[in-house]
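Attaching the record inline, Q. Sequence:
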Amino acid sequence: MGQEPRTLPPSPNWYCSRCSDAVPGGLFGFAARTSVFLVRVGPGADVIPGTSPFRVIGELVGHTERVSGFTFCHHPGQYNLCATSSDDGTVKIWDVETKTVVTEHALHQHTISALHWSPLVKDLLVSGDEKGVVFCYWLNRNDSQHLFIEPRTIFCLTCSPHHEDLVAIGYKDGIVVIIDISKKGEVIHRLRGHDDEIHSIAWCPLPGEDCLSINQGENSEELEIPNGKVIAQTPVKKGCYLATGSKDQTIRIWSCSRGRGVTTLKLPFLKRRGGGIDPTVKERLWLTLHWPKGQPTQLVSSCFGGELLLWDLTQSWRRKYTLFSASSEGQNHSRIVFNLCSLQTEDDKQLLLSTSMDRDVKCWDMATLECCWTLPSLGGFAYSLAFSPVDTGCLAIGAGDGMIRIWNTFSIKNNYDVKIFWQGVKSKVTALCWHPTKEGCLAFGTDDGKVGLYDTYSNKPPQISSTYHKKTVYSLAWGPPVPSMTLGGEGDRPSLTLYSCGGEGIVLQHNPWKLSGEAFDINKLIRDTNSIKYKLPVHTEISWKADGKIMALGNEDGSIEIFKVPNLKLICTIQQHHKLVNTISWHHEYGSQPELSYLMASGSNNAVIYVHNLQTVIESNPESPVTITEPYRTLSGHTAKITSLAWSPHHDGRLISASYDGTAQVWDTLQEEPLCNFRGHRGRLLCIAWSPLDPDCIYSGADDFCVYKWLTSMQEHSRPPQGKKSIELEKKRLSQSKPKPKKKKKPILRVPVKQELCNGNEEESVKESSGPVENGVSDQETEEEAREPELPCGVTSAVSKEPVICTPASLGFEKSKVTINNKVTLLKKEAPKEKPEALIKKRKARSMLPLSTSLDHRSKEELHQDCLVLATAKHSRAEPKEDVSADLEQRFHLGLFTDRATLYRMIEVEGKGHLENGHPELFHQLMLWKGDLKGVLQTAAERGELTDNLVAMAPVAGYHVWVWAVEAFAKQLCFQDQYVKAASHLLSIHKVYDAVELLKSNHFYREAIAIAKARLRPEDPILKDLYLSWGAILEKDGHYALAAKCYLGATSAYDAAKVLAKKGDVASLRTAAELASIVGENELSATLALRCAQELLLARNWVGAQEALQLHGSLKGQRLVFCLLELLSKHLEEKQLSEGKSSSSSYNAWPAGSERPFVERVTAVWKSAFSLDSPEQYQAAFQQLQDIKYPSATSNTPSKQLLLHICHDLTLAVLSQQVASWDEAVEGLLRAVIRSYNSGNFTIMQEVHSAFLPEGCDHLRDKLGDHQSPTTPAFKSLEAFFIYGRLYEFWWSLSGPCPESSIWVRAAHRRTTSVEQSQQLDNVSPEETDPKASQPAPSRTLELDLRLTEEGEQMLNACCKELFSEKHAGLQNAQRTIAEVQETLAEMIRQHQKSQLCKSTANGPDKNEPEQEAEQSLSSPQNQCKEEKNEPVSLPELTKRITEANERIAKFPESIKTWPFPDVLECCLILLHIGSQYSGFVTQEMQQQAQELLQKYGSTKVYKRHYQTLCM
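Structure, as predicted:
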């Protein structure tokens, strides 16, 4: 198992002629997305012996779009230089040692498609683009040359290794040219033979044409046409062979001296496992070549299905080849290969590296043609990581490329032992979850809502659940089955079922034994069990506690609900987050403290992580749900939303978080302390997992297509970046691939290739159709954009081959829209012309029968002929003759004067004319005259030309025709986006429900509700559905006030209050609380009012806070707490002890009475402001507050939160005093003191003492009376803390530069001699016992004659005896021993990991051993116990120590262990220090007792050191 960091990188870019390269010595690089990843291969990789000899060592970051070319400089001494080309139009030259850009140019105006560093000219870089432009760039002189050889798309180019001026260029249409750059790009040879894209060009490694036994006379192809421009006397020195690989499935070898092909190799159709290849089907192909150095008779090529072939060129007339890895099955690539490059390692091994569409980088040994190792990669966002609880070390990775990878992270021989599963997935894998006990059983969820089960030990396709989610699957969890009809009886139930949470807000329970059956929506059970009438929240996360008894659901509104099995009884709601919950994680159950298993961490779209301790709630099993609004711990530091959380399986209370700020953070949750921060990703983190075997190792995945394995001990940062650093990280992330906003002038070069490949059903053709939806929020930068260079069929595949055709194709839709708009505009412009038309209406024939009218205005002869024809037709007694009928048909306008049939014909001709001229309304009128109204309506409906007038006339044709016409007109209006008008017409035929549904489906909720409210019964369910649907959309869009109105309209007042509170500002919370109170939701009202008051508290608006609490009667106890907090804050401000006076504080106008004791002032205000004066009222307030429990304080607890919690305890103490319940009073005071002590806020502790115990603890002792009271231990602790505080005050009063008389000492000054002065200074101890006391006494020429007052003597020698509790000293010593052993164990693990790392690096042990010895020798004096002499402590000895300490702790009575006590040894040291400084102050008996306690219990290093300083 290797301890070094590892990277699972993004996939190498596809369809590029040169996107990977390597240099001697073992450095390999490949382009992936917008950067280049560097891999050290061979002995220099510094991996653990026995594992694969390669390591990903870094990344070249700087391009903003896909890298299309990568090449190293192959000149000795310059192996550190490389060059890249990108779709962003730049060519950059890099120094791989510093990973920085040396220089760059942006000479190309079009997409760069080929790049090569000249093997002969060390500073020449040649690049070509898709328009046929070639640039030669000389690095050292910063000079360039522009060459335009052919107006064709360049696919590849390669500089000659033998002649510094020759460059071979391959084009898209199959032409290959060899140019001389010294002659301005003169074409030396134009090689014709291929008839499709040239994918690769390779020069023969040896010059001349004697290296191959090719009989050019026999084998040269007659069809090859040499370039006519070639001079007859072509220099013989330029003779060399050239190989080209093309999409036409052939490899051709050309003679440069003759300018023609000498042999052709046709790719074989190889039979593979799974069937052969049908030669008639056009296969996906990329034909890349590599001509091994020094081996002119061998040529490596790719083949159809990813195989590599080694061609034998010794006998050109025989097509002879050897298949790579022919003996071992499954070692070849499974998809086409794009790039090949050779590498010579430091130990002179000849290797070949290949990149492929199967997303693997493979390394081949050229001596054996076997695969040495494989580096897998990712083709999409890393959405999910999950370690198997059964197969320790098996990490499942769900990615956006539609594949699941199982990484055996603890494989000894292969660091990248990855198995890939893709069958049945066909979409982004967004969630993974292993079965807790069943081996190899992995559940997965996808972005199209699919849930499935894979057996990772078989090759079978997965089982897919028949019930799909409507949106992305957010999370999966295994848990016990809950009652449902679909699971049948008890005997049919599996022990664990699969739960999935989808983006539509539903949690489904799937039966793993019967995935084909319907999944169960657990909302039904939750609603029935808890009798919930209001709308259930939209669920976004599910997490089961490890014991399977408790389920947590995270919701879109930020709330978290806790349910108990078997019937999912709601026992608790956590109202902490106010944005969508992304992740919930329960602490493991096998820690040293079992109570930690009740810790639950959660992260949301806010940047704050909250940890809640649910032990009390779960164990008490309350009848009605409890609402929690205070977290146990708060972890602040991230600057963007939290996406994933994971507890360390190796530590107690250690948590790792992943965030959109681009970092992962390790926290000590119990101390609220950030420990280390990882900033290696270039994107937003999406998932995180802690290694199950290595406590120092963490795996993280992000939207940069990477999974990193990293070590916490190697991180230099301890917390997430803030301010400028955060901005820099954001810039770093944004430097990834993004589409340019401006319209591209040309299609992507490789589009036609991709277009061909889009027809297959293989896993690569999965389209990343939309961005990742992280729990309901869609990212602006979609994965599709990030993946564009890697998709075989991208969005651009519809673009045609010629760039000119692209523009009209893309603008066609816009033009059609413009046409429609113009038509509408013209109609509007013609509207004013109705008035002049109205004047001309008398001549109806001209407007309605224009053709007939025009025929009546012909020449006189024609009109006379009309009369004759008409007379003949009218007065012919027999049937009209054929010639007369023909005349009448020709002169249709005569129908006006003959029979009806002829008139109909005339109307028909006139109607056609109107339609052709774009006047359908005139056609409709003619048909109406004819009496064919039904026909008119049908024709108009078919043509989409129904009008209001036509529909208004429809009743003439009958009721059914009218109804049909109205429905057809409504459909027509819908096509024209006139939904409201369509609904109005539907109402005219009494189709109210259809009208309402039409408006609802097109989001016209306001209009739909108006109609439903006006036309339907008030109790009709459609009305409530409208309100709820509109409310949900408004809520999603952030229109909370309007959404609340909708919920109120739907009689869902609870939801109305919840949505109002969603914004979280004071005004919204107050309104929500008032609303909840009005509608009778008292519990919700109280919760919201308290939240409102806490928000006002942060702004120090005391008046507003009291007004908010006044909204609900059940908050009277909280009003007392806030009142006491206000008085205490004011008191501290007056004494200038707060963090700073705040002029913005808005205090209540309560009577000051500052001269009275503080407790009396508090009770007086309570009496005057809250009418609290009877014991019953005090008791009721006490009961209200007693049930609220706050978590213990740490040094990281915010000061305002700390003060609120302290005041809560003090309020309970004062209330207890008022009803003479002294036991509770003592406990309340002690809790407040302990909070301030644990937080390290000594000032607050002393203020609590002075305000609530101004005369000390004697009056409490008198009130308690019996010394055997259960509260006696608590009183002893309180008294001890009081004395502890006074002891420090006494010490500090002596530590000033010039102590004055006080209640402790009387001071008188006298001169001192220099000898006395030096003696005094010598007596000052250089070691201080406590950071609070780090104030050394300065030298002074006046010596103080200090004498103890009676009070001082009483305090030092009588009261301090209370601090010298031997029982507490013994307990504290045992606890310190356990802590020290745990620290030693942690240090041993760290040292072991460091030594493992050192072994894997050159000269590591030699460098680090002296440093470690130096560190250890500095850490402790050499004359101490064996631990301090740097002798290693064995693990059994540490185990023995911790066992003995636990046994000692178990022997102490519970009364001693329940309540904390000041550090006894600390107090001993202070007294000894005072005694050594001021003789006579501390009695000999006290000093003796202190020394004995230190000697007996000061076994830890820190106390030993101080004891030696003071007592030796």
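The mean pLDDT is 79. The two ends are 50 Å apart (CA to CA).

More tomorrow.
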